[in-house]
Amino acid sequence: MVSPLDWLLGLFSLDVGIDLGTANTLVSVRGKGIVINEPSYVAVDRKRGNQVVSVGREAKLMAGKVPKNIQVIRPLRDGVIAEFEITEAMLNYFITKAHEQSFVPIPRPRVVVGIPSGVTEVEKRAVYDATMEAGAREAHLIEEPTAAAVGAGLPIGETRGSMIVDIGGGTTEVAVFSLGGIVISRSIRVAGDEMDEDIVQYMRNKYNLLIGEGSAEKAKIEIGSAYAMVEERTMVLRGRNLITGLPESREVSSIEIREALQPSVEIIVDTVRDALDETPPELVADLMESGICLAGGGGQLNGLAERITREVNIRTWVAEDALTCVARGAGRILEDYDNLRRLLVGLERGSTHH
Ligand code: ADP
Ligand code: MG
Predict the structure, then answer these.
(1) What is the pLDDT of residues 142-182, one digit of tens each?
(2) Hey, which residues does 165 pair with through a beta bridge?
(3) How far apart are CA 108 and CA 106, in angstroms?
(4) Closest ligand 1 atom to the C-alpha of 192?
(5) Ligand 1 nearest atom to the CA of residue 217, by list position
(6) C-alpha to C-alpha distance for 43 and 39, rounded to whole angstroms
(7) Nearest CA to ligand 1 atom 26
(8) Closest by Cα among 240, 234, 157, 173 to 200
(9) The pLDDT value given to residue 51
(10) What count of other Cβ atoms lies within 10 Å of the Cβ of residue 95?
(11) Is there an atom of ligand 1 within 6 Å of 75 CB?
(12) Is 221 a pocket residue for ligand 1 (Cβ < 6 Å)?
């Protein structure tokens, strides 16, 4: 039962869904959609006890261009919360910012945060505490693949199975659902960042050209692919020649970038295949009808859906608005709280960090 006061607060307060991603943090607010979409970066001053200098877009712009005492950190880089305090500071900054965007003074928000699947109890507690510290009235956690599936509109509550492959920056999460629960899941540390790394390695090995991660990412997004393109393309990459030490530019083709991406793509496809191998046959039969849904930024890699379709013989497609599925899905839980609360992750009592 809700008290009349809680009911009244509920009418006016913000319902907020947060995607705490390894590459990007998104905040969705009920009735408004995505209000924040910024890189999960924090710049701290090492000389002043890790004082936060900037967060998000501003911090990402500082990467690689700051004095020695300033360090730019991705606190969730590998899907684990490597630095609690910094993650807390980042969450606090984004929640406060979302709350400030309202024009009227309103009660504190109810928040659902998507967390990488497989994080430890201590990490869960840290995210919960950070969310409450940041001024939430209620904080709930949900595993990212579940939020992604809800955001993508998959019917995960039904007996009929469905499958999501969420490819982010640091991790790829594969999950098969039935009756609202995860039946099979896989989480690997191969995703968008590793693809960028593949391209850096390829350019170094083939052309002795050292390019930055940013250029590699640009090449991946603009001309990268996992399957032969209808029209192959080229682009110019700039870097430093490792033999002469001089700046150099080099034209590369989409065929070369596809070859470069091959190692990561293959690992992702193999992971999907492994998950299918372990899925009970009745659910596999369902998946042959419902298909495989790709989400996350990496899911948008050109030709990846087609590649998976061919390799595992199940129709694969990219979710609409693949980058915002987790944030929208997390927010959606609060809109239909009574029905969807069972998708949330519980916290063990008494666990604590520090
Ligand atoms: P996370 O959930 O881990 O924060 P995201 O879902 O935000 O990650 O995805 C970020 C990753 O997606 C980055 O590695 C980025 O380079 C990659 N990405 C974004 N758009 C594309 C695209 N069109 N093609 C391939 N990769 C993409
Ligand atoms: Mg994600």
Answers:
(1) 999 999 999 999 999 888 999 999 999 999 999 999 998 99
(2) 174, 294
(3) 6
(4) 14
(5) 16
(6) 12
(7) 298
(8) 240
(9) 92
(10) 26
(11) no
(12) yes
Does the CB atom of residue 114 touch ligand 1 within 6 A?
Answer: no
Q: What is the rounded distance in angstroms from the CA atom of residue 255 to the CA atom of residue 233?
A: 8
Please report which confidence band the pLDDT of residue 63 belongs to, taking 50, 70 and 90 as the band edges: confident
Q: How many CB atoms lie within 10 A of CB 317?
A: 15
C-alpha gyration radius of the chain: 21
CA–CA gap between residue 166 and residue 191 (Å, rounded):
9
pTM beyond 0.85:
yes
Compute the distance from residue 220 Cα to the ligand 1 centre, in Å: 10
Residue to substitute in 167, 235, 258 for testing ligand 1 pocket (most ligand atoms within 8 angstroms of CB)? 167
Q: What pLDDT digit, counting tens, does each position of 208-237 carry?
A: 999 999 999 999 999 999 999 999 999 999
Residues lining ligand 2 (ion), CB within 5 A?
21, 168, 296
Q: What's the 96 CA to ligand 2 centre distance in angstroms?
A: 21
Distance of CA 86 to the CA centre of its chain: 18
The reply to whether ligand 1 has any atom less than 6 angstroms from the CB of 331 is: no
Ligand 1 pocket test: which of 76, 294, 301, 328 has the largest number of ligand atoms within 8 Å of its C-beta?
Answer: 301
Buried b (16+ CB within 10 A) or exposed e, 330-354: bbbbbeebeebeebbbebeeeeebe
pLDDT at 354: 46
> Closest Cα partner for 194 from 271, 261, 272, 294?
261
Q: Where are the alpha helices (DSSP H) in the chain?
A: 4-12, 57-62, 84-100, 121-133, 144-151, 192-207, 213-223, 254-278, 281-290, 304-312, 325-335, 337-340
Structure tokens at 127: 């995210």
* Cβ atoms < 10 Å from Cβ of 31: 9
**Distance in angstroms (rounded) separating the CA atoms of residues 266 and 271:** 9
Whether 166 is in the pocket of ligand 1, judged by its Cβ within 6 Å, is: no
Q: What is the DSSP letter of 322?
A: G
pLDDT of residue 245: 97
